[in-house]
Specification:
Blueprint lengths: L7 H33 L5 H26 L1 H21 L3 H15 L2 H12 L2 H32 L4 H4 L1 H15 L13 H21 L6 H24 L13 H30 L5 H4 L4 H18 L4 H21 L8 H26 L6 H37 L5 H7 L2 H4 L7 H30 L10
């Protein structure tokens, strides 16, 4: 068979490189953002430089999954990387915030292919017992990127210019394209069915309305009219998408997938766990810096054990998948996450820095088992010609979980801090902004620091209570998957 000619090792390395390139992009841009804003003079638009990348990435993820099932993984993967590289080159050449946001949108469109198609390629070239381990290693790139990106971004900005945080993608991407083109062999059957362009359009409209609405909710001030319009667009787009998929010859997402209870529950669990994941990774550094006063250069390492143990959890997932049912695996992994998230929700403000290493390790094992097993099981539940769709849907579930919960956590954070400020007349929100950073915290009156840190602690405490509730909900939902008809 032609597939046997694939150089599995080289293709795997290429996939890892592409995933890392995509993963590092968000964080490295955040690191360089102060410099970019200073050069392009667009502080009011700076959030959109990051948000637009995530938005277009999510919108095109399910479309790439379907295209990979039609035209083959190689063509779609290379096409996505080419779009990503064009977006990177134009972003590096941008001379205004408006154009930078436009080219970042193009970058996101290309990046939308990398995660779902890379995991689909892994499903093609690895047997089930090895697949979870490789996907775990591939997924760990996100954790590694969160550590390396600030250091690399700082080095590039200090020694070259911010433009190079985009240009650096070009040689990496070209090498990846070369490796995939010459070392990945696949058989692609001729596809005679019509592409569901209308379904793709309505899906994009629905996702745009949903994600933009939640993006607005996470901001400190927004227009209620715009918010309502966004969700109306989502509802109308979703309705028209469902109607189109029912009559499409070859739909972009097969609606009969939702008749499989195990498939639905696995992906809902992925969405909820991804909400915990983003809350843990984004807000733990705020805890270690703002409450404990740990320098920014060290604070990020509080989440490092989770990245390392994520790989271990993926190895466990590989063993569990061949021995246990889907709901049993999920019960074990969610129970581990429940312990870790409960510890985060209960620990006092005086908790020492090293204690978070222990909590991060527990969560890392849970993340590794859950994220990896739900993806592999979603792939197992469909026929080979639908693996791309199932993989992209699982990736979309992760993105939606993170987007929605980031907005919810932002509301919790702002609401708690506003209540704390109102209850303590001597402090204000400007002080709250300063206390999060150990450097600016030094400029605040010593007598007010305990009060400010207590307000910050209450805000983070409430966020992690919310994280724990997510896992409880996931456990309850998983309890409905106990019948064996659809289970595997």
């Amino acid at each position: 068979m032609e597939k046997k000619q694939t150089n599995v090792v080289v293709v795997t390395v290429a996939i890892f490189v592409a995933t890392f390139m995509s993963a590092i992009e968000g964080t490295i841009v955040s690191t360089a953002m102060p410099t970019i804003v200073g050069d392009l003079h667009g502080v009011s638009l700076m959030n959109w430089v990051i948000s637009i990348f995530l938005l277009t990435n999510a919108i095109f993820t399910p479309i790439y999954g379907k295209l990979s099932d039609i035209f083959g993984r190689k063509r779609v993967f290379i096409f996505g990387i080419i779009i990503f590289l064009i977006g990177s080159m134009l972003s590096g050449m941008a001379h205004s915030m408006g154009f930078l946001i436009l080219w970042r949108a193009l970058q996101g469109i290309g990046a939308g292919s990398i995660m779902p198609v890379s995991n689909t390629i892994i499903a093609d070239i690895y047997p089930i017992e090895k697949r979870a381990k490789v996907m775990g290693l591939n997924g760990s790139a996100w954790g590694i990127a969160s550590i390396i990106a600030p250091l690399l971004g700082g080095f590039i900005v200090d020694n070259l210019s911010w433009h190079w945080i985009f240009f650096i993608n070009l040689p990496i991407g070209i090498i990846t394209i070369f490796l995939i083109q010459f070392f990945l062999k696949e058989e692609v059957s001729v596809h005679s069915k019509k592409i569901d362009y209308l379904g793709s359009f309505w899906l994009m409209v629905a996702l745009l309305g949903l994600m933009y609405g939640f993006q607005l909710m996470g901001e400190s001030s927004f227009s209620w009219i715009t918010l309502v319009i966004s969700f109306v667009i989502f509802i109308v787009g979703a309705g028209l998408f469902i109607r189109q998929e029912k009559r499409a010859e070859d739909p972009i997402i097969f609606l009969d997938l939702f008749n499989n209870r195990t498939f639905v529950i696995q992906n809902v669990a992925t969405m909820l766990v991804s909400g915990l994941l983003i809350g843990f990774e984004v807000y733990l550094p705020s805890w270690t810096q703002g409450i404990l006063g740990v320098p920014a250069s060290l604070a990020g390492f509080a989440v490092t054990p989770s990245s390392i143990l994520w790989i271990f959890g993926s190895f466990l997932a590989g063993r569990m998948i061949v021995k246990l049912k889907a709901n049993q695996i999920l019960t074990i992994s969610l129970s581990i996450l429940a312990v870790g998230s409960l510890l985060l929700a209960l620990v006092p403000a005086s908790t020492p820095f090293l204690a978070f290493f222990f909590i991060a390790a527990i969560l890392g094992v849970g993340f590794g088992i859950t994220i990896t097993s739900t993806l592999v099981i979603s792939q197992q539940l469909v026929t080979k010609d639908r693996i791309g769709v199932a993989t992209s849907f699982n990736t979309l579930a992760k993105t939606l979980g993170q987007t929605i919960m980031m907005s919810v956590f932002g509301i919790i954070m702002n609401g708690t801090m506003n209540a704390g400020v109102k209850a303590n007349p001597k402090i204000n929100m400007d002080m709250m902004n300063k206390v999060v950073n150990p450097q600016t915290a030094k400029t605040l009156p010593e007598t007010l620091l305990p009060t400010l840190r207590n307000v910050l602690y209450q805000a983070l405490h409430n966020i992690y209570i919310g994280c724990f509730i997510l896992i409880v909900v996931a456990l309850i939902i998983n309890a409905f998957d106990r019948r064996s008809k659809d289970n595997i």
